[in-house]
Amino acid sequence: MSHYRILERLGGGGMGEVYKCEDLRLKRIVALKFLPERLTRDQLAKERFMLEAQTASSLDHRNICTIHEIDETEDGQLFIVMACYDGETLKSRIEHRRVTVDEAIDIAMQVAEGLGQAHHRGIVHRDVKPANIMVTSDGTAKIVDFGLAKLDRQSTLTMQGTLLGTVAYMSPEQARGYAIDQTTDIWSLGVVLYEMLAGQRPFRSDFDQGVVYGIVHEEPQPVSAVRPDLPPGLETIVAKALAKRSADRYQSMAELIVDLRMLRSGTATGQTLTTTISRGGVPRSIAVMPFLDLSAEKDQEYFCDGMAEELISALSKIVGLNVAARTSAFAFKGKGQDVQTIGQQLRVTHVLEGSVRKAGDRLRITAQLIAVRDGYQLWSERYDRQMTDVFAIQDDIARSITQTLKVKLGDQTTGQLFNRRADNLEAYHLYLKGQFFWNQRHKGGLRRALECYHQAIAIEPTYALAYAGIASSYVTLGAFTYLSPDEAFPRAKAAAERALEIDEGLADAHTALGTLALLYDRNWQKARQAHARALELDPEYSTGHSWYSWCLIAVGRVDDAIAEQKKALSIDPLSLMINTLVGAVLYHARRYEEARDQLVRTIEMDPNFGTARSYLGLIYEALGEHEQAIAQLERARELMDLPMVLANLAHAYAVSGRQREARALLAELEAATTSRFLSPFFAAAVYAGLGQADRAFEYLDTAVAIRDAWIPFLRQDPRLDVLHEDPRFSDLAMQMEAGV
Predict the structure, then answer these.
(1) Which end of the chain is more exposed for a tag (fewer CB within 10 A), N or C?
(2) Is the dihedral of CA 109, 114, 118, 121 positive or negative?
(3) How far is CA 434 from CA 510, 520, 739, in A?
């Protein structure tokens, strides 16, 4: 039919039949959904089917099925072309095996995120059920079938009193034929969560009328009676989602996500959640946005960002308050997104915004706390102070927020909320500038960050945070091969040790030492201990989890490494670097298709993020898709002037048969070693791709001798698989493993 070849029937329901097809033009597998023939003459059904396509195609979210197009056959039969996913419906999963508690929470959170995006666009799904949720092979939940969706702004297709949906998952108001809103989907997701946990629906009968009666009038059996191994608090969440009165339920998917996230992270119990519910469902979560620079000279961006970072750090220490990570919150910088969009994507219920205006040594700082649910301002304040009062202003804002959210300070936060600050205001400003440049993560930014940190220390020699900044900068410069190991790592180590001499409680300094213990000292036990201390000090330190993941990969603990990287992503979901490193760890674990999907999603977030394109090129190469690999790596080369990226491209040329280009690029890299560092590990990978094993091992021996940052991953790098049968590889691997 047209340019689609039907392969097999996947399933169907009252609103359509679905087939697996091959798109002959784009050479991809898709799913086609057809309106049933019996309804082709029903104009209302055709309008509703068209509405499904328009509704779903307007929602761009990783947890909502992608719609490619809508078309019509020659005889007038409508069909939708959708993405076809490798996986199973949640209905099938529940029927065939017991869903674990962690799995149920993860799926519920993903579905809530997708539905929250729909609700923000004024769309209520109205038919949330396991059959309409696909779970892909990598564990991603995809919501399908918006055929029964109702748009608040376009509701003429559904008259009040008309039942649309699946009876077992209807809310009480939906079952009665009353007007509905987004809390109907919250009820339905509560039924789905109950079913995942209990293996059965909360309301059951042989007849639809009996099910409806139960939904409207009866309380379900407690899920713990069927599943006694539930963590404290989960039954409370299910009960709140299944409250008979819509006003008693969660009022947004963001609120539900916050409680599920607290439960998963271990920061919630049945008691704390019950307390939250009794207060009217006010979850404790916040995103601090970068402050706006309203100064006439527009030269205070570093200070505005630093102000927000300091508040994020302080608020993160408050027991019971979830705070969005810095990178994820700053992803909205300059984009003009509304508070509801920010709250939904960051899974928070409150947003702090502010501005800074500087004139001479005078500051005017404004701050306002906004509720995501309705956009109302809960608190605002203006501070007209001297520049020397900036620390007091930060304290005032943090404590005002805790009071507004009614969050009690735990014992560990009743004293100083903020990290040890500089005594000298100029040193503090230099540190903030250093942080501003460090967060750019490229060579120029890292070098400018180092200049600022050193200037801060020259003014105040015991400024621990500045030493920690130096350590993190040199670790990054060495790991990305901007500098040689001997140039970067001893300096990083000295700075981290000095930071901890001054203040042992700096998580980032411990993380730097843990990473150096692996990459430079090759001491796995020391690395593990340092990372454990960092995460003990700050369990929500996303960079700590991410860098620890690489230590785990190096010693072959693949599953643990992936879990740590995904933990980092759950803390900081909009971080481009962490999203990229999830794909990178999956690549080293040889889970190439999952890695590809992760990196494609990352590039959708920012098509100009070169690191993601570089890794995606390696992944396409491992999958044998050489043209796509080269295309990604050539684009990465345009975005990043980095020998490591050029070496990756040379390897892709080599294994794709374009050896002349590979040799030319490699010669260019080797000729430039007098002015820039070329990692011998990456040079060895290129020679391995060219089939020159002797040259590859010469470079690998050099990599061991100079303590190349990548040599600990000798066994885990797929590009070196061609060398595994050579006895010299086993000797090298044993030499490395003796230390690691």
Answers:
(1) N
(2) positive
(3) 19, 25, 34
- Residue 179 — very low, low, confident or very high, per pLDDT cuts 50/70/90? confident
In the numeric block, the tokens 């002015």 are attached to 675
CA dist 94 and 568 (Å) reads 29
CA atoms of 634 and 656, how far apart (whole Å):
14
The DSSP secondary structure of 546-572, one letter per residue, reads: HHHHHHHHHTT-HHHHHHHHHHHHHHS
CA nearest to 654, candidates 628, 615, 682, 685: 685
- Total Cβ atoms within 10 A of residue 569: 21
**HSE, side-chain direction, 13 A CA sphere, residue 397:** 31
Classify 87-278 by CATH class.
mainly alpha
* CB burial string 386-408: b at 16+ within 10 A, e below: eeeebeebbebbbeebbeebebe
Residue 192: phi and psi, rounded to 5, are -65, -45
Query: Residues 685, 713: contact at Cβ < 8 Å?
Result: no
Which tokens go with 243?
């409250």
Predicted confidence (pLDDT) at residue 123 exceeds the cutoff of 90: no
Domain coordinates of the chain in residue numbers? 4-83, 87-278, 285-413, 662-740
Of the candidate CATH numbers 3.30.200.20, 2.120.10.10, 3.40.50.170, 2.60.40.10, the domain formed by 4-83 belongs to 3.30.200.20
* Alpha carbon distance 612, 439 (integer Å): 17
Q: Which residues pair with 381 in a beta bridge?
A: 367
**Euclidean distance between CA atoms 28 and 11, whole angstroms:** 20
pLDDT at 413: 42
Give strand pairing partners of 201.
Answer: none
Most confident among 201-210, 337-346, 400-409, 660-669 (mean pLDDT): 660-669
- List, in order, residues 6 or more apart from 658 with CB less than 8 Å away: 630
Residue with tokens 């499904």: 52
What residues are paired with 352 via a beta bridge? 288, 369
Closest CA to 28 of 73, 66, 84, 80: 84
Would strands 141-143 and 123-124 be described as parallel, antiparallel, or unpaired?
unpaired
Q: Which DSSP symbol is given to 64?
A: B
CATH number of 285-413: 3.40.50.10610
Active-site residue list: 127
Residue 267 is classified by DSSP as: -
DSSP 65: P
CB-based contact 194:220 (threshold 8 Å): yes
Whether the predicted model's global pTM rises above the 0.70 cut: no
Please state the separation of Cα 128 from the chain's center in Å: 24
Angle made by CA atoms 86, 92, 97, in degrees to the nearest 5? 110
Instruction: Identify whether the C-beta of residue 288 lies closer than 8 Å to the C-beta of residue 311.
Output: yes
